[in-house]
Amino acid sequence: MNKRPEKKNPIGKRASKKRSARPSSIKSHIRFHSDLAGFSLSNSVAVKKWLQSVAVKYKRKIGTLNFCFVSDDQLLAMNKHYLRHDTFTDIITFDYSSDEQLPGVVSGEIFISMDRVKENAGKFKVTFKDELHRVMAHGLLHLCGLHDKSASESKRMRSAEENALDLRHF
Question: What confidence category does residue 5 fall into, taking pLDDT thresholds of 50, 70 and 90?
């Protein structure tokens, strides 16, 4: 019985059966969602470009990224259900990235409490826009591999957030 020769690509290497897309060929899909009355993200095109520049700084590319702007009550319910935390929070990030299939490509859903953003903007004496963008960057930075559990990680995260805000040109 004759054995069929293995298929090879033009440079002589064995062709793999499963091809994964290259990060450079991945199209970014950044979407913003809100059911909150009176809220709509301003400058969404500029915000998308800014978020992409933040990812590039960390040698990442954005695949599919959904930002969901919600109320305190909605985020508290999610925090209890998914993380078993009975506390208010400004953000919850769900990481759907798959480094095995798409190395360097980040994907996920980022839920942001607009009530927390508004309160924290007043507390830290910054504009609502700056605080919102800081929290958005925070979620993306988690997807890029930064953490904030320890004091040293938190310090690095705060610095990365400030650096991300400095990348804005709008």
Answer: very low
pLDDT band at 25 (very low <50, low <70, confident <90, very high): low
Q: Which alpha helices (H) appear in the chain, and where do they start and end?
A: 44-57, 72-78, 114-123, 128-143, 151-166
User: Are 117 and 128 spatial neighbours (Cβ–Cβ below 8 Å)?
Assistant: yes
Tell me the three state secondary structure of residue 78.
helix
Mean pLDDT of the chain: 89
- Taking the CA atoms of 84, 79, 135 and 106 in sequence, report the sign of the dihedral they define: positive
Nearest to 69 by CA among 124, 28, 31: 31
CB 146 within 8 A of CB 156: yes
Cα(55)–Cα(59) distance, integer angstroms = 6
Bridge partners (DSSP) of residue 103 are none
Q: Give the three-state DSSP class for 157.
A: helix
Give the Å distances, CA to CA, from 127 to 44, 64, 96, 122, 124.
17, 28, 31, 8, 9
Whole-prediction pTM = 0.84
Stretch 63-79: mean pLDDT: 98
